[in-house]
Structure formats: C-alpha cells, structure tokens
From TrEMBL:
The gene is alaS. Belongs to the class-II aminoacyl-tRNA synthetase family. This is Alanine--tRNA ligase. Binds 1 zinc ion per subunit. Residues 1-488 form the Alanyl-transfer RNA synthetases family profile domain. One of its GO terms (biological process) is alanyl-tRNA aminoacylation. GO terms for cellular component: cytoplasm. The chain holds residues 1 to 488 of 878 of the full protein. It is found in: Cytoplasm. It catalyses: tRNA(Ala) + L-alanine + ATP = L-alanyl-tRNA(Ala) + AMP + diphosphate.
Amino acid sequence: MKSQDIRKAYLQFFESKNHLIVPSAPIVLKDDPTLMFNNSGMAQFKEFFLGNGTPKSKRIADTQKCLRVSGKHNDLEDVGFDTYHHTMFEMLGNWSFGDYFKKEALAWAWEFLTEVLKLDKDRLYVSVFEGNPAEDVPFDQEAFDIWKQYVPEDRIIFGNKKDNFWEMGDQGPCGPCSEIHIDLRSDAERSAVSGRSLVNADHPQVVEIWNNVFMEFNRKADGSLEKLPAQHVDTGMGFERLCMAMQGVTSNYDTDVFTPLIEKVEQITGLKYTSNEVKNISEEQNKVNIAIRVIVDHVRAVAFAIADGQLPSNTGAGYVIRRILRRAIRYGFTFLDTKEPFINQLVAVLANQMGEFFPEIKSQQQLVTNVIREEEASFLRTLEQGLQLLENVIVSTKGKEVSGEKVFELYDTYGFPKDLTALILKEKGYSFNENEFEIELQKQKARSRAASEVSTEDWKVLIPGNVETFVGYDQTENDVKITRIRKV
Ligand code: ATP
Ligand code: MG
Ligand code: MG
Ligand code: MG
C-alpha cells in the first residue's frame, strides 16, 4: 500500500466513525509562547481541553505536521542514526472532545490496524498504565479490560509514568495512555526472544506506532487529582512508522515517503544508499547512509517550516531551522563530498510527492528552493574557510587536544559552530579543551557587556579641545571632528 493511500485510509476510517476531517495546523506556531513548533497533533486543540472554546465537532481527525527539535520533545540528535525518529513527521490523530472514551478509541484503533490495514495481530503489543500509588494515580483497569477482549494477556504490557501517563503541565488535564507497538523482526528472531521484553527499549524493529491518551483527570495546584467533568481522547500515530509496517520494510527510510528523496540524492552525488535489509555494510557505507538519512529527513523539516512562513534566521524559531539545515549541509559536505548547493533540488521531489495533500509545499516551492539554495551557498563558504583553518590548527597541535582558544577563535571570528568543530575533531581522533573555550567565551561576554556600557555611559561626544583621553575620530561633520573619548 502506498503512503498516500495509507493516509487516506486512516482519514476515511475515522470519517466513517463520524469524525470531522480537518487540515494540519502550520508547523510553526506564532501565538503560543510555550511552544515554538507543533510537536504533536493535540497542540492545535489544546485550548479545547482546557475548556476554552468549543471545537467544530466533538470528533475530529487529521494528520498533523510535527517537528520535534526543541523543548520537551527533541529528537534531532537521533535523526540519521536511528531509522524511526524524524525531525519532521506526520502524526495521524483522532480526537474526542467530551464524546467517546476508552472503549471506542481502543476498539477503533484495533479495528483500523488489524481489519482495515490487516497488520499481523501477532506482531502487536499494547501497553496500559500500571498506576502510581505514591501519587494516588490508579492502574488503568478499564483499558486493561478492553484490551483483554482483543489481545492475549502476554502481549499487554504495564507501563510506567514516563511512557504511559500524559500531563499537559504541573497542573491541568492529564491521564493514562495506552500505546500500540509493533514487532517487525523476522520470525526466527521473534521466536528466539519475545518482543515483550523489547517494547519501549529502543529496539529499532520493535517500535511504538500509536499512542492513545485518555484525559481523565485534572491535576490541582496541591498535586491531587480530580475527575474531569468531561473526558477526552487524544491519539497520535506516527505515519512514517505505520508506512514502514505496511510496506514490509524495517526502516522508515525504506518506505515511499523517503525513497524518492533518497534516489534524488543518489542521482546527484553518484553514491548509493543501502536499505536496512542489507547487512554487514562497510564503515564508509554506514557514514554515507547516515548522511543521506540526515539530509532527506532535514530537508522536509526545513522545507515545510519555510512553506509555513518560518525563514531561517539568527534568532528563535528561525535559528532552529537554520541549524537543522546546517546539520544537513555539513553531513553532505563531510560524508557525501558535496561542495556545491544541492539540497534545494530535493524540494521539487518533495513538492511532487507531498503537494497533493499539503498544497503549501507546491505553492511555495520556488521560494523554499531559493531560500535553501542561498543558505547552502553561504554555509558552504563558511565550512570551506573554517575547515581550512581547523586543519592548520590540527597540524600545529602537539598531542591530541586542540587549544580551546583556537576553537573559540573559529567560532567567534568565522562563525564556525563549536559542536561542529567538536564533531570534526572527534572524527579525526582529537578533542579540544572545553575549559579554555569557556574562559574565552566568558571573556568575550564581559567584553561585549563592557562595550555596551561604554556606548551608553562612558563615552561622550565632546568638542575638540576638551579631550581627556583621545580614542579616535568617529566622523567628520561640517568640519567639526566628533571625537570619542573615554571618561576616566
Ligand atoms: P518514541 O517513544 O518512539 O520516541 P513518543 O512516545 O515520544 O515516541 P508520542 O509523543 O507518544 O511519541 O507521539 C505519538 C506517536 O508519534 C508515536 O507513537 C510515534 O509513532 C510517533 N513519533 C513520535 N516521535 C516521532 C519522531 N521523532 N519521528 C517519527 N515519529 C514519531
Ligand atoms: Mg519520543
Ligand atoms: Mg514513547
Ligand atoms: Mg508515546
């Protein structure tokens, strides 16, 4: 089944259960001071759960563009290294606002996965909240009893607060969740080791696909829980992971969500990506694979963010987007030997593939391409210069530790990020002196503090002849030299 059809099947299924299908909210949030990017399907409905406003329907379903690169959910550093966490991904979600509850939500989740999509029941595990007596939160007996109708007890897992209890904050709506996991290992592997022990254990083939949150309680200021007057359901399913399960592959990158992008990178670089089924690859090939995964992942995050109005910049959300793009550029530069802008060419592939469902990526295609190309060109210049300088530093270093002052100079004068230097050094078997770097950083901060004080308080514009300590001419205006002096 193609990814497009999987997405449609989900939305149609919930439409048939009387859900209103709504479009994804933008990936960038402009009016929420607590959140930079949409990182889950429920973000756009938050106010309804807090009792502010009424949704258009008590039952809603959609697919939400999510970005997990900052704050509570930050998967950025895993991306490229694992095969199932992305920066940008789609979260399929269905909601009940004070309407249906656990019985329907779990029954429909099961029906969709096993009857509509016909996933193998024997590969599915479900989890329920085990309870937390210390905080007076009960075991989720209700969810357990519902699951027992569908799933043998040895595939029901009792999860702790971290995985199976959801809270909006220290106070407010909260409740137990029930996750669905899938075991995609081979039959031989599955009979050797039970998947039960691998759930929520970072196994790349035993992954969480769907989370069902039941907003059942309100946590009060004193920490105690009370039942909410109306109970809600919030579910989120990772679309790319579902595609992996449906397409008989063991990596999200081997699904048709990513293969067109990967093929384009292969075509541009002349290098090959090996699918997750190919074992025993060389160290070199592994690096190429990681770099390609980073690039095809990050281009989606950056392209959708720009299409939704967030240009790369030096502050806030724009800076996060710039850093994601720079991470992709660097992986290309280092492991694919790409010294010219090329990531921008992937935007056309993305627009072609996703444009039908997300028209913004098509309508903004030109802008997105241009912005990415410009960013690539300028960062590649920085990389070239910085790498050359770093090379010189390494050559003049005795031992394996580079001076923190030099690393600071690269950062301060050439805009070469510290973590980037650290990575490059690590790849070459070097490290740098973090303390020295930190000292330089503090000195620089003190200097700029002093400079700003200077410009507001310590410096005065005086007429010539009244100079105490001559510092320099600022400008010449009507033949009167305006001289800056330091007041002692
Ligand atoms: P995980 O434990 O795998 O990190 P999670 O518990 O953080 O996932 P939830 O917040 O429960 O994820 O989000 C709901 C669903 O979204 C998950 O069940 C998963 O399928 C999907 N998902 C979460 N994070 C990512 C990601 N970074 N990339 C792709 N899909 C994701
Ligand atoms: Mg997570
Ligand atoms: Mg989880
Ligand atoms: Mg989860």
